[in-house]
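Figure S4 source data
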Amino acid sequence: MSIENNLPVMHPVAGFSLGTTCAGIKVAGRKDLVVMSFDSSASLAGVFTQNAFCAAPVHVAKDHLTLQQKKNQQKEGKRFFVVNTGNANAGTGEQGMLDAQKTCQTLAQLTDTESYSVLPFSTGVIGESLPIEKVLSGLPEALEHCSEEGWSDAAEGILTTDTRTKGASVQLELGSKMVTITGICKGSGMIRPDMATMLSFFATNADIEQSILQKLLKYAVDYSFNRITVDGDTSTNDSSMLVATGQSGNDRIDTETHVDYIKIRSAITDIHEQLAKAIILDGEGATKLINIQVRSGRTEQECQAVAYTIAHSPLVKTAFFASDPNWGRILAAVGRSGLTDFDINALEIYLDDVCLVRLGGRAADYTEARGQQVMDKEQITVIVDLKRGQVDTQVWTCDLSCDYVKINAEYRT
C-alpha cells in the first residue's frame, strides 16, 4: 500500500527530536519504529484509552508517567517515547508486559537513563506477540536519526492502515516570544472515543507548568479526538501525548488565569482539531467528511447521544456513500437516540442549509434535487436542531463504503 506524504510545513520544536527507522516489524522496508527525545526539564501530559483490555505498552506508559511525576525528574537528562507499528502488543498477557518493559530497558541502557524515563507505544494487529528482537535491534538506528527536523519521517513511521501521513504545525506569539506547536497522529479505522483509536504526539516550545499542560491536553482532546467516529470501535492502544519543552522563553504559564492561557489553549485545540478531521478524511474507505451538529439540546449528554446515533448508523453512513438523500434514515436515528419528553414537531433537520424536516415531517420547501446537490459534496454538515435547550455539540464522521469492509476483512492477510 502506498502512503501519501503531503504534510504541511512542519516547524521544528526546540528541545524535541524524532528518529525513524525500518525494523521489519510487519513489512520489510517500511518505516515502523520511531524514537522521540526531550529533556527531563520539559513538561509532559498524556491521555489514554478507556478500553478495559488496554495494551501492555499503555499500562507501562501510564506507570512510567506516574513514576516520572512522583520522582519529579532531575533537570538534567533525557526522556523518550518509543513507538512501533505493525503490532499492537495487546491481548498478549504477561509476555506482552515483559516485552514492553524490555523495550524501555533497552532504550534506557542505550541512552544512559532510567527505564521509567521511556514511555512505549504500539499500534497494529491485536493478539500477536511483539517481535521484540526486531524492535530492540532497530533502536540504535532510530536513535542515530533523531533530529528536530524528523517530524515527516516519524509521521510515516507510526501509520498502520492509514493511506496518508497526518501532521500540523502552527506558530504564534506569546508576549514577545514566538511559540511553535507541531504534532503528528495516526488513525484510520477502529475510531471512536474515548479516545478515538489513534496515537498522537504533539510538542511545543512554550513554557507551561505540568498540571496546566494536562488541563490543556484534556480540553483539546475532548473537543477534537473525542468528537470523531469512523465505526464506533475503540481500540486497546489509544494514546495522546503533549510535551512542552519550555525553550521559547515565554512567561511561564502556570495558572488558568494567566494572560496567555486562553490563547495557547485555542492554538493547541485548533491543531488537535485539524488532525482529528484528518483521521476522518482518511477513515478506512471513506469518501466523505460529515460534520454532525446537534443544537439547542438540554444537556451535552443528550446532544452527543443524538449525534453519535446518527454517526454510527450503517444505514445513514451507506446513504452518504451512495450520495442518496434518504433523509428518513437520519430522522429515524434521531428518534431512537433516547430523547425523553421529545416534541417531534419542534425538531428541524438540515443538510447544509437545506431543511429536510420541519413540523414532524418533510419540510414543505424541500425537494429531492436540493437534497441531492448537498449529498454530492465531499464535505457535508448535518444539523439537528432540537429546539429544547441551550446546549450545542458536534462530532465528525465519514461514510461507510465497500472499501471499509474489504480493508478490514483483509487486515491480517
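Figure S5 source data
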Amino acid sequence: MIKTDILIIGAGPTGLFAVFEAGLLQLKCHLIDALPQAGGQCSEIYPKKPIYDIPGFPEVLAGDLVDNLMEQIKPFQPAFTLGERAETIEKQADGTFVVTTNKGTQHNAPVVAIAGGLGSFEPRKPLLENLSEYEDNGVSYMIKDPEVYRDKRVVIAGGGDSALDWSIFLADVASEVTLVHRRNEFRGALDSVEKVQNLKNQGRINLITPGEIVGLQGEGQLESVSIRKTTNAAEDITLEVDNFIPLFGLSPKLGPIADWGLEIEKNAIKVDTFDYQTNVPGIYAIGDVNTYPGKLKLILCGFHEATLMCQSAYQRIFPDKKYVLKYTTVGGINGFDGSKKEAPKAVIKEIT
C-alpha cells in the first residue's frame, strides 16, 4: 500500500501546485490521475493553447505551464499513479483514508485532496446528421497542435473563451479563419472579444454572427460547410474549408467520486471556503471540481484554493502544532530523500 501525507486526485495545474504548497510545509504528496501523463486538460486537450491570466506570464502555453509546474515541484519529489482512476474511498479506524484505483492500487493518507478538474469529460457536439463521417477527417473537437492547421482554411464554431482564443491564435497560422457563433454576443473575456473584432476589421478573421453550421459536405474528407446566417434556409451559404472545429465546451462527469458520500451540486463538490474542505472532514476539493458562492473556474483560483487547503491539511496532520506562515525563501534544506539541496521552504513562526 502506498502511504503519503496528502493524496491528490488529479494531476492538473491545481493538483501540481498543491504539491508545491504542501512541500513548503514538508508534507509529502502522491497524485493519482486517469490520464497517462500529468497536466490534466492542459496536457491532454490543449497543450499549445495560450493562457493569459496566470500572474507573471502575459502569455503562456498550457503545456509550458505544466512543464514549469513540474519543474517547480521537483525538489519535493512527488510520486504519481498515472493511467489509473480513483475508484473507491474508505475511512479507516485511525481516521486516515484508503483510496483504491480501478486497477486495484491502494493508497493511504490522512488527507485526500480532490483536484479532478471537470472530472471525466467528452466534447459537446453539434447536432449534424453526418458529423461522425468527418471526425478525424476534417472535424475535430480540440486543438492539440496548431501546426496541423498551418495554411489551412479553418472554421471555428462557438462563443466562449476557447473559440475566441483559438480564432485569435490561428489567425497567424491558418490561411483563412472563420468564426461562427449563433448570437452576436460572446461569453468569453471582453479583451478576447475586442481582439477578434480588431482582427475582423483588419480582414484577418471572417466573423459570422448570428450564424450556425447546418451541414457538412465532402467525399470521405470534409470539403465544405453550410452556414445559416438567418432563420431563412434559402439564405444558407456554402464555405469551402479544410477543417471544422466546434468548440462548444465539455460535458463533465464526476465519475466514481460522485458515489463517495460528498455533497454534490450541479455536478460539482460543495466546499467550505475557509479551507475548501468537503462535508467529509479530511477530504478537500480544489479547482474546477468544486463549487461555492462566487466560484470562478480559473486556474489562478485553483492555485489559491490549493494554498489554503494545504494550510488546513497541515493542521489536521499535526493538530498539536501552532504556527504562522510568514513568507517563502530559498535555502539549503534536506530533500525527502535525505540529500542536501537548494529548494524553496516556508519561513514559519511556531506559536507556543
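The helical segments are 13-24, 41-44, 62-73, 161-170, 190-201, 299-317. The mean pLDDT is 89.
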